């Protein structure tokens, strides 16, 4: 049984112990887990490792806010040891302040701006791309950083396991279906061929431009030429590497080159590669559905030449340069011109020079007579 002395002694020691604990706590810099900041990801995992953890928005939409520790720690941010509050900087207390966004999409649009703090170069590149233009025009579904790269699972591009076309296909589903059936898509998805172009190879990654932009359409042959003028690459697949040379040598290509040089802000009135071969649905020239197959070529030509007759496509030499083994009539006509034109020009030059000399000598003789 405690006496009054015992009670007094106990109370005295309890007060001094409490004061000492408070002094040690605040002079040591200790921060309570549910206090003013979360500097250690372990504090966040206490709650966010719960697979059943959810968050509701005013719209009634409910999302999971579970964070897979392994997934995050193997991401580019996790490997660098970035703390959760680097991105979730406003989360400084517990319970967290409720989000004011109406739904998850609004939340994503607010949160992606955090990427600008570190990735200034990439943000500068996306500023005027088709997605940002659409977003500024009021389209909330236009893609932002997290739609393409993810959130807690962001990987280095070279390590990404999802083909780029399927990332883009999240929004551009119909286009992606056409692409995967094309000669490029079938090689990428079916064969895992890394040499074929995917979405970003043609449209760019952050500076994305599309066919509604005149310069993109006008300069698109240069995009195709990056691969199709690579002789080593083309020959390794048995593909003619002279397609660009033959294109810029004919009247279509020459006109396009002139437009690129003197009127780059205007649309060309001559076809570029995609006008004949298709855009996302390009097929092998041997495919029965190809727009450049001999049997289908008239329909392709009639897009620009509605009065074209059945023999109109015969004037096209394909992308092969005339030679002794192919397109012989044109080749020999060219040979004749190579010989005839220098002879005619040379003969004319010789005539002009000889006439000049004759006139000069005649004029000189007349002066002596005087």
Describe this structure in words.
This protein is mainly alpha-helical and 370 residues long. The chain folds into four domains: 132 residues, no CATH class; 37 residues, no CATH class; 113 residues, no CATH class; 44 residues. 51% of the residues lie in helices and 2% in strands. The protein contains 19 helices and two strands. Helix 10 crosses helix 11 and helix 15 crosses helix 16. The longest helix has 42 residues. It is elongated and about 110 Å long. The N and C termini lie far apart (158 Å).
Note the topology:
Elements: H1 4-27, H2 41-48, E1 54-56, E2 62-64, H3 69-73, H4 76-79, H5 104-111, H6 120-126, H7 130-136, H8 145-149, H9 164-168, H10 173-181, H11 183-191, H12 199-203, H13 214-228, H14 231-236, H15 243-249, H16 251-262, H17 273-277, H18 297-301, H19 328-369
Antiparallel strand pairs: 1-2
Helix pairs in contact: 10-11, 15-16
Number of helical stretches of at least 4 residues:
19
- Assembly level: single chain
- Estimated radius of gyration: 36 Å
Biggest sheet architecture: 2 strands, antiparallel
SS class: mainly alpha
- What count of structural domains? 4
Q: Residue ranges: pLDDT <50 for 5 or more in a row?
A: 1-5, 20-37
Strand content: under 5%
Write down the overall geometry. Answer: elongated
Q: Tell me roughly what share of residues is in helical segments.
A: 40-55%
What distance separates the N and C termini?
A: 158 Å
SSE succession = HHEEHHHHHHHHHHHHHHHHH
The number of E-state strands comes to 2
Average pLDDT, rounded to a whole number, is 83
Please give the order of strands in the largest beta sheet: 1-2
